[in-house]
Predict the 3D structure of the following.
Amino acid sequence: MERQNFKYYLAMLPLFIFAGTAVAFISQSFSSWGNLTKNSPDIIIARCRETPETMKPNGHMVDTQGWIISNMEVVSVLKGATNSGNVKLGSEYCPRQGEFYLIFSNYHDGYYTSTESYRFVPLGLQFSTNMIEGVTLDERIQNLLERRLNSLNQQMKSEQEEKQRLEDGLKN
Amino acid sequence: MVPLKKISILTIVLIAFTANARIIGKFPGWDKLKADSQYIAVVRCANPIPAKANVLVEGATESDSEIQIVFTLKGTNNVSSPNLLTDHELSSGQKYLVFGYFNNDAYCAYERFRVVPLDRFFSTHSIAGLPFDEQVDTLLKSALEKAKRQEALDQEEEQRLEDAFKK
């Protein structure tokens, strides 16, 4: 009986390995903006239109296996394939609906891939292509990164206030 | 002598401004916030109602989103799926502790301090059956853990962005 069980698990092993491989994706650590700009075939500015449903109608959470496919609207192409309008984008990062992003990605088979979170630079809910200042690609990206840094500092300030409020509330 | 026509125009302008204004209060402390809020609940943000791109609506809240009430701490239980109006940014799938009130079908919690982001995997089982004050404390602890993690992520991003300007 035990021998039969062993055979059964042995037969199932390749299946488990295959299933595990199917959902895996390789994530690389950030090296530098220069490398990212050079190695990303497609650099776009896009607005997140829709992220996947997080809950099924029965109230259960949807398991995306860490891979989120969002509907995006390409607003401007800084490098690569000149797409416009609605596209699909896969990533481990979940963008915020309605927000604009500078995205370092790879376009293939009608689909954008930007696996790592650092490939997304949030640009806020209001964005105009007039804000893409600069002549060269590097200048444009620098300006957008500066814009993000300023808004991140504001965001950190309000999050710091929020954290302080929580700590004060728990002291009492 | 100010002409009657000018006074009439001024009155209309003043009324228009008043209609758009929202009163934003200061944080009164958790105890007062708990006491004064008519409806306190843990909600899950569903689909945000995206603002029209590049259209600024005077007096509109930063976020307007469909929500699901996950757990009611204070107030009536017979609420279906309202919209949450707040100046706190909201993300789909994220859970929040909200101190607010109902105005028609909208759950209003305008000020940022009224909306507290909770850990994504926070389970309401951990607060079931506890007294109200302990429930809020447990939720605030979960929020503080999340805030600490977010702070670390922000610092990482800040460092990355600052690296772009180092020569």
Summary: The mean pLDDT of chain A is 84.
